[in-house]
Amino acid sequence: MTNKQTETGKTAPVGNPVPSFWNADPRPLDDFRSTKDLPSEIDIVIIGSGIAGVGTAYHLLQDTSFKASIAILEARDPCSGATGRNGGHVKPDAFLNVPRNAKIYGAAAAAELAAFEASHVYAVKDLVEREGLDCDFNITRALDVFLNPGHAKQTEASYRELVKAGIVDLHDTSFTPKKDAERVSGVKGAQCCFSYTAAHLWPSKMIHQLLQMLLNKDVKLYSHTPVSSISGTPDENGRWTVTTSRGLIKAPKVIYATNGYTGELLPEYSRSIVPIRGICSHISSTKGADTPHLVNTYGIRFDARNNDYLIPRPDGSIIVGGARQRFWHNKGRWYGTVRDDELVDEAVSYFDDYMQRHFRGWEDSGAKVNTVWTGIMGYSADFMPHVGEIPEKPGQFIIAGFTGHGMPQILLSTKGLASMVRDGVPFENSGLPRIFKTTKARISTKRSLMEENLDPLWRTGRKSKL
Ligand SMILES: Cc1cc2nc3c(=O)[nH]c(=O)nc-3n(C[C@H](O)[C@H](O)[C@H](O)COP(=O)(O)OP(=O)(O)OC[C@H]3O[C@@H](n4cnc5c(N)ncnc54)[C@H](O)[C@@H]3O)c2cc1C
C-alpha cells in the first residue's frame, strides 16, 4: 500500500502507519494470509483484527460445538490499528463520566455501564491466565490526579454527590485531598486524586497470541486485504458479497470490527462514529535500574478537557499519551482524520522531559522519549459504542465506536456479540450494557452530543496555555 488511503476512499485505513512502541518489531503474522486466494464463500467474515475483531472470533469458538468457518480480513498488518497503538491501560470509569451518563441515559444505565467496565479488569486477567498469554499484564491502582484547583473542587463535589446518591458501587474508589495528594500520587501540584483498581498490558502481544490460537483452530486470516464494499442486498441464499483488494467473498454473516474506519464501509454510521487521531509516546531512562519506579497508572487531568494517560512498564519505561493542549485547538489536526502514517508534529516535543516536569523524584532520572506515534480512535456521537445487529441488514453486525476507551469495554462486548451471532441471543440477553445497542434512532439522529461537547473549543479556536 502507498502512503495514501487505500483506493476505497476518505476514511479507509492508510498504508505505512508510523511504528508504535508495541509493534516496532516484526511478528510472524504480519503479512500472513491463510491461503493464497480468498475462499469464495465462508460462514462468517470479520472485518478488522483489533481487539474487537479478534475477541469476537475468540468468543465465537469458545463453544467447541460451533463449527462455522470464519475469516478475518485486515487492511494492514494484524493489530496495527488502535489496539496496536494505544496506551495499554485498562482503566474502568468508576465515577468521572457517571453524572454525564446518568443525565443522558438515566441512573440505572449509567450504573450498569460502570459495573461492566469494572468487571473488565478481571475479565482480561482471566483471559490472560486461562490462555497463558505472555503480554506483561499487571493489576494496578489507577490514580486520577487533578491539577486545576477549580476542576479538582468540582470533581470532588460531584464524587461526594455520587456517594450520597448511591447510584454506582464506589467501594473500590479512594479519594485523597489536596494536603496529601502530591505525596500520595507523586505528581507535582496535585490538587486531589482518586484511585481505583485497573490494569495495564501489551495489547498487541495479547492479540497476536490469540490470533495464533485461532489459526490453530482453522480460523482464516488475511492481512493486507482491505475491504472496499459490501453488497447492498444479500443474494438469494442470504449471503452478502464482500469486495476486497483480493477478490470477492460471500458470507451470510459479516461483522464490522472497524473502529474509526466504519463509515467508509457503512456510510449510515459516518456521523455516528468519527475517526479521531491521538498521539502517544514511550519514555525510558538512561539510568536503567536506578530509575524511580511507579507502582500506579495515571490519568493526569489538567482541566476538564486536557488530560494525559500514563502507564509504567515492568521494565521501568513509561507510556504516556494525550498532549491535547498542543493540537486540539486546531480541529483539522485530529478530527475526522485517519492519518496515522504521520505524527502530529506540533505535539511531539510535548513528551520531552515529561517525567521530570510532572513527577517528584524524576528530576535527575535522565528519562528521554524513544518513540512517538499516532493512532486512530472511533469516537461515538453519543459517547456509546455501537454493538449488535445492524438495522435493516440481517446477518450484519457491528462492534465499533469505543471512543478512545475500548480496553475496559471491548472484551466482554465481544463475548456478548458472539452469543448474538452464534446463538441468535437477543441483545437484551447478551450481558451488554443496554446503551451499547446499535439502533436506527441512534444512527439516524442529526444530533451529536460529542460535537456539542467539543463545540466551545472549536468556536474559540484558542490554544491552551497549558
Ligand atoms: C493513541 C491511542 C491511545 C489509546 N489509549 C487507550 C488506553 O490506554 N486505554 C483504552 O481503553 N483505550 C485506548 N485507546 C483506544 C483503544 O485503543 C480502542 O478503543 C481499541 O483498541 C479499539 O479496538 P478495535 O478492535 O475496535 O479497533 P482497532 O484496533 O482500530 O481495529 C480495527 C481494525 O480494522 C481494520 N479495518 C478497518 N477498516 C477496514 C477495511 N475496510 N478492511 C479491512 N480492515 C479494516 C483496521 O486496519 C484495524 O486494524 C487508545 C487509542 C489510541 C489511538
Automatic annotation (TrEMBL):
Superkingdom, taxonomy of origin: Eukaryota
GO cellular component, one term: cytoplasm
Location of region: Disordered: 1-26
FAD dependent oxidoreductase domain boundaries: 43-415
One Pfam family linked to the record: DAO
InterPro entries given in the database record: FAD-dep_OxRdtase, FAD/NAD-bd_sf
Protein name: FAD dependent oxidoreductase domain-containing protein
